[in-house]
C-alpha cells in the first residue's frame, strides 16, 4: 500500500512539475510576444519630443504649436513628420516660416486658423439704449 501511495505521490509530483514547466513556458512565450508587440507599436507610433526651450520665445511658440498639433493627431506618419520638422527647426536646418508652412497642413481648423475679417459693430443712439435698459429694468423689477 505504501509503495502504491509513494508511486502515486511521485507521479503527482512529476505531473505537477511538467505542468509548472509548461505554464512557465507559456508565460515566457506570452511575455515575449507582448514585448515584441509593444516594440512594434513603438516603432509604429513615434514619441512626442520634449525639447522645449522657454527662454527662446520663438522656439517656445513653435514648440507649443507642434505640441498641440501632435496631441490632436492620431496618424503615426503625421507624428513622424511633425517630429522631423521640430527637430529640423531646433537644429536650425529650417527657419520658422518654413516650419509653420510645413506643419500647416496638419493643423486643425478649430483654433489655429483665425478670421481677421471685419467685425460687425452694432450701434444705437443713446435714447434707444436708455429705453431698452429702462424697459429691461422695469421687467426685472416686476418679476420679483
Explained architecture:
The chain is mostly helical and 144 residues long. Among the domains are: 9-44; 57-106. The chain has five helices and no strands. Helix 2 (57-72) packs antiparallel against helix 3 (76-90), helix 2 (57-72) packs parallel to helix 4 and helix 3 packs antiparallel against helix 4 (96-103).
Quick tags:
144 residues; mainly alpha; 0% strand
Give a topology summary.
Elements (H helix, E strand, L loop, with lengths): L1 H43 L12 H16 L3 H15 L5 H8 L22 H18 L1
Helix pairs in contact: 2-3, 2-4, 3-4
Q: Classify the beta-strand content into a percent band.
A: under 5%
Give the overall silhouette: flat
Query: What integer is the average pLDDT?
Result: 78
The biggest sheet amounts to: none
Q: What is the tally of helical segments?
A: 5
Q: Percent range for helical residues?
A: 55-70%
